[in-house]
Amino acid sequence: NGLFMQGRWRESDHHYRQSLTLFTQMGDIYNQAIVQNNLGGIALKQGRLDAALGYYERAVRLLESIGSSPAIIGILHMNLGNTYLRQREVNAADEHLQQSLDLFDQVQSREYLAETYGYLAELAVLRGDLAQAQARGEHSLDLARELGMSNEEGRSLRILGEIALARQDFHQADQSFRDSYTILTNRGDEYESACTQLALAQLYAVLGQVQQAAAALAACTVVFERLEAAFDLERARQLQIHLE
């Protein structure tokens, strides 16, 4: 877990796999599921989306087999929804995200609501419903602030910036991205900060500010390369091609 938080994903993956072997030998189903979820998190961030789906689906089956807490299963459905969102499979993403909300509601769990509504906002953008996206994004931000979750606040601000960009409200997009970057940098979240830098690069590209776009792109690309975040690295490279 410590290595994962430090962005040392390859080493983290190695230790998670060792723990999974041991938990399997012990017959510890609950912790097998938790490790499968963690391995899914690495696969997702590295862009191995099919592998992430496999890890999350196995974790759900394991937890359901022992009648685990709806809140924990809800987290996995949220992660499945996010993964399908990255694959742009909107119906599957919506199904899992709604399941996560239902499960959280069963036990009145609010810890992951900000994150879930952030994904629902992104889903609405993909569907072209910017009014719904705005409402969900604002709800995500309000929840993050109410619960004192600064990392989710930073992510929600980036999502709202992306919605503003889609609406061609460039001033608001710039402000949201800058606020997001400040919060995530102060949190020491290198990966999420880089994602916001990529969003800023996209804004600068739209505005024709090529030098600023190139600088933001160079900064986030270094991070994505080191973390082996293939999904985001490909997005950065596609933008670089556009700039050229």
Please outline the major beta sheet.
Answer: none
Strand content: under 5%
Uncertain runs? none
Separation of the first and last Cα atoms: 39 Å
The assigned structural class equals mainly alpha
What's the overall geometry? globular
Strand segment tally: 0
Overall mean pLDDT: 96
| Element pattern in H and E | HHHHHHHHHHHHH
Radius of gyration: 18 Å
Short description:
By secondary structure, the chain is mainly α. It is 84% helix and 0% strand.
Account of the protein in words:
- The chain is mostly helical and 244 residues long.
- 84% of the residues lie in helices and 0% in strands.
- It contains 13 helices and no strands.
- The chain is globular, with a radius of gyration of 18 Å.
- The protein starts with a helix and ends with a helix.
